[in-house]
Amino acid sequence: MATEAFAPAKINLTLHVTGQRADGYHLLDSLVVFCDVGDTLSAAPADRLSLRVDGPMAAGVPDDASNLVMRAARFLDLSRGAAMMLTKRLPVASGIGGGSSDAAAALRALSALWDVPLPSPEETLPLGADVPVCMTPRPQRIRGVGARLCPVPDLPTADLVLVNPRLPVPTPAVFGALTRRDRSPMPEELPRWPDAAALAEWLGTMRNDLEAPAIRVQPAIADVLRVLRAEKPLHAAMSGSGATCYALLPAGQGAGLAETLKAAHPGWWVASGAILRDTG
Ligand code: ATP
């Protein structure tokens, strides 16, 4: 029986860079959510392991052993086969964790297909710093290099509109341009936000420390933020290392803004969806 798993976009609502380890890994403190926009990974029984990639964002995505989906399959079981199909809808190298979410989806689909236990989030860290958080697509706080996870319950319902200027931004270049000296984390205790407006007000007091360096690497990010903020959402900021930016809106209002932006900026990738609040 074939299995299928959804790989939702991962959005860093905040991203505080709190330090750097001697081995070069940056230490983070980030509020992460997932949005019901994403890639799909299906896996069917087969003698050998294979991957095909299709979908609107498939161009340039490797279908060989370097794809994170193939690496995840080999991580789960070195010897078994499966015919995998990845439908790519998330832009590549865009700060919304597409590859990491695909890897987590592959682990979910293949553990069901092969009837082998799913690794714990922490165990998946060798596949990439963002893979552990993608193992359970629900609001979480991540600290350290990415494996210190803490669920954030009771996040208010809200929509996100995601906008990418279709310009890939390599994460190492953005960390290389980071000069900020404020390394303070988020408050130890996160507040309980009664609604999306309260969450947005709090987000306005937090940071994405990668936003300024990402704009230095790719100035078009500043244009995206200007356009989003002109629409007066509850809040707008960049996700991860960019270039994707998000606008936070009350539940049900994302699709309308997405249509407006698509019409005004046909060259941009624009998507909208609700924040995923359950483990799914
Ligand atoms: P993050 O938010 O975790 O920094 P990202 O969204 O910026 O991630 P990805 O889309 O995961 O970046 O792509 C990063 C690189 O990984 C690309 O250069 C791409 O060639 C490679 N890659 C490997 N597997 C995949 C995959 N399944 N989907 C997308 N990119 C992949």
Automatic annotation (TrEMBL):
Domain of life: Bacteria
Any coiled-coil regions, as ranges: none
Catalytic activity as recorded in UniProt: 4-CDP-2-C-methyl-D-erythritol + ATP = 4-CDP-2-C-methyl-D-erythritol 2-phosphate + ADP + H(+)
UniProt key word Glycosyltransferase: no
Binding site for ATP: 91-101
Family annotation (Pfam families): GHMP_kinases_C, GHMP_kinases_N
GHMP kinase N-terminal domain sequence ranges: 67-129
Biological process annotations from GO: isopentenyl diphosphate biosynthetic process, methylerythritol 4-phosphate pathway; terpenoid biosynthetic process
Family: Belongs to the GHMP kinase family. IspE subfamily.
Family matches, as HAMAP family: IspE
UniProt function note: Catalyzes the phosphorylation of the position 2 hydroxy group of 4-diphosphocytidyl-2C-methyl-D-erythritol.
Name of the protein in its database record: 4-diphosphocytidyl-2-C-methyl-D-erythritol kinase
Native organism taxonomy: Bacteria, Pseudomonadati, Pseudomonadota, Alphaproteobacteria, Rhodobacterales
